[in-house]
């Protein structure tokens, strides 16, 4: 006879200690799942939290949801794994090491194994030509590591040389919204240069290459490198700083445009408040 899903935590004839539907607040992200899901992996952190063995009260947020202070975006992959014990990640997933750390925190050893990089003793055909052979245990291990480091630097200088041959062509568009006041004498206020956010549109790999750590990817974190996005924006608000980064990467401006819309007019001064959107298109051959 098959046992119920929560038989491991509930004795016969007793009601389960938690409702069938569990609401979780993980780092500010809300998840709704079944009690059987959070207790599906024995000895995991969630299994211990929601089992009868746990005598400590669980933390809750202001709405009564169970609170876990971890990465809310990566937790969706943890929850997916707990549903069917299979790991399915997007192509070109950039957060694999961080997800492995989350799996270790939630005490999911099988998931940790699936996320651990597999290192073969011999290079495969698809490996990079500059990849060094794995070092063998010897008294000169430090010397071998130093030589391997120098080889990696040499490979990087060859594949990413100062020439423009290794740079891929493409477009990057940056845009911003602003506002300005137009009075009777057609004099404008300089508020239109108060940039609240500089948005970035283009191929993901090009945007990351140009702007690096100054690129905010929080609104589109799982976008593969070869896909396009219009949801990135910069962590700074100086247009000239964005222009400098584009110029340093070999881009030059090929087009720009701006539109303005009258939002409202002041009753006493007849000044009109205009909102604008401006875009700059950059291209690298």
From TrEMBL:
Keywords: Cell membrane, Cell projection, Membrane, Phosphoprotein, Postsynaptic cell membrane, Synapse
Keyword Ribonucleoprotein on entry: no
Keyword Cell membrane on entry: yes
Pfam families from the UniProt entry: BTB_2 (PF02214), H1_KCTD8_12_16 (PF23110)
InterPro entries for the chain: BTB/POZ_dom, H1_KCTD8_12_16, SKP1/BTB/POZ_sf, T1-type_BTB
Cellular compartments annotated: Postsynaptic cell membrane; Presynaptic cell membrane
Residue intervals passing through the bilayer: none
Domain BTB: 20-123
PANTHER family reported for this sequence: POTASSIUM CHANNEL TETRAMERISATION DOMAIN CONTAINING 12B, POTASSIUM CHANNEL TETRAMERIZATION DOMAIN-CONTAINING
Summary of the function given for this chain in its UniProt record: Auxiliary subunit of GABA-B receptors that determine the pharmacology and kinetics of the receptor response. Increases agonist potency and markedly alter the G-protein signaling of the receptors by accelerating onset and promoting desensitization.
Protein known as: BTB/POZ domain-containing protein KCTD12-like
Organism: Huso huso
């Amino acid at each position: 006879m098959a046992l119920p899903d929560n038989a491991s935590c509930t004795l016969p004839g007793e009601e389960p200690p938690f409702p069938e539907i569990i609401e979780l607040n993980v780092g500010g992200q809300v998840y709704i799942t079944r009690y059987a899901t959070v207790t599906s992996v024995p000895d995991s952190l969630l299994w211990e939290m929601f089992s009868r063995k746990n005598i400590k009260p669980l933390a809750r947020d202001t709405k009564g949801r169970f609170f876990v202070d971890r990465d809310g975006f990566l937790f969706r992959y943890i929850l997916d794994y707990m549903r069917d014990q299979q790991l399915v990640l997007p192509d070109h997933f950039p957060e694999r090491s961080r997800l492995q750390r989350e799996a270790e925190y939630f005490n999911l050893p099988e998931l940790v194994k699936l996320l651990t990089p597999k290192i073969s003793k011999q290079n495969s055909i698809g490996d990079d030509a500059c990849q060094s052979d794995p070092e063998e245990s010897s008294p000169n291990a430090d010397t071998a590591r130093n030589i391997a480091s120098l080889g990696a630097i040499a490979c990087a200088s060859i594949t990413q040389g100062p020439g423009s041959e290794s740079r891929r062509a493409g477009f990057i568009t940056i845009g911003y919204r602003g506002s300005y006041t137009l009075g009777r004498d057609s004099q404008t206020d300089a508020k239109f240069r108060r940039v609240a956010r500089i948005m970035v549109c283009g191929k993901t790999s090009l945007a990351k290459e140009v702007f690096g750590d100054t690129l905010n990817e929080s609104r589109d974190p799982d976008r593969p490198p070869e896909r396009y996005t219009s949801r990135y924006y910069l962590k700074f608000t100086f247009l000239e700083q964005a222009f400098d980064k584009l110029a340093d990467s070999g881009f030059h401006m090929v087009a720009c445009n701006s539109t303005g819309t009258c939002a409202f007019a002041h009753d006493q001064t007849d000044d009109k408040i205009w909102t604008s959107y401006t875009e700059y298109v950059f291209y690298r051959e």
